């Protein structure tokens, strides 16, 4: 009997995991610079949290959740996204009482969605995201967008496009909703069954339908931006102004709506414009949610955030043929010719590692030639060979593999030598 990973999941093997670590390092570093402290919430939550927090009419809640009953009869769900859990935590720990608002947090970890698996779409994927909860300053919107853009740029991506829209406030959405229903109702028979359900429940979602994406009625639908009231329009203008101040290019797409129910005002996506990227072009999605915390039992509190997956970032890197500068350098490989040399090799390896020099040796008692081949495959920067002579003279011949240069170095000087040459 053999086993395979469950559909829509993957093993990240050595060789790949270095890239993940590199990207995660960029994310951690930039979150610190922007002061988004890490928050870790449980991998599963009560199912109701997502039904309320993500929204009953969303694809996520209707089709994509991994829901199970535990032995105590509670309905639990593997988290499909990060924002609902963080809003829950904000309320549970009364973070609204913290003197410094907004509370700025970041998260990094696996999310679970039962989706049709395809390129860039997994059932377990790793999302990085941030939330700034407790301020409705449009400068925060710009900061959050800048942080997302900077992560991609720092990883070396160039073919990026930022698309923004305003979903307005409640009043705007209600007026727009009525207009949408009027627009779609006479033709709703042409749409998929999901859209037929959406018409009354949440017609905005029709604009985001993947099945009916090519129906011309989507393009001619009433645009949210035409319904913005003075306040929402002013807010949107301020966000755009701050983006200008930060020198961030953007495109306004009046049809951009986000998949989750709780968004209002600013919505944005970052797409890859690289030709090689394929059908799914969205790298990151985010926006403002001014009703979520209240819906989860807290005081009325504005918030904004984004989520991006590492899987899609890696796809974009591949499409743009960007090689990440990963840190997997092996500083030195020690070849041992006999048992006594092996003992010395073990001792030296340990002393190198203690000083931050990465080192490896043979653990299969292979002949010198095979050990040299390993050193090559591992791309060791330096190699030393230990035999009788070396042990007698207490020194080794350090060979730099790339250049072929060799130097005799006493054992007690090896650490110094490697530290100054690595
Ligand atoms: P899509 O329209 O592609 O389904 P979404 O609107 O469901 O995206 P969000 O819930 O906003 O996506 O998630 C934010 C980001 O998480 C996406 O932009 C994408 O980078 C990533 N993402 C979402 N679902 C997946 C998945 N199944 N596999 C990998 N990455 C994903
Ligand atoms: Mg989705």
Task: Provide structural commentary.
This protein has 422 residues and is an alpha+beta fold. It has two domains: 17-169 and 229-319, Bira Bifunctional Protein, Domain 2 (BirA Bifunctional Protein, domain 2), CATH 3.30.930; 330-420, Rossmann fold (3-Layer(aba) Sandwich), CATH 3.40.50.800. The protein has 16 helices and 16 strands. The protein has helices spanning 17-33, 47-53, 59-64, 83-92, 138-154, 170-184, 193-201, 216-219, 224-227, 230-245, 292-295, 310-319, 339-354, 368-377, 388-393, 414-421, and strands spanning 37-38, 44-46, 67-69, 75-78, 103-112, 124-133, 160-166, 251-252, 264-272, 282-288, 303-309, 330-336, 359-361, 380-386, 395-400, 406-410. An eight-stranded mixed beta sheet has the order 1-5-6-11-10-9-7-8, sandwiched between helices. A five-stranded mixed beta sheet has the order 13-12-14-15-16, sandwiched between helices. A three-stranded antiparallel beta sheet has the order 2-4-3. Helix 1 runs antiparallel to helix 5 (138-154) and helix 5 (138-154) packs across helix 10 (230-245).
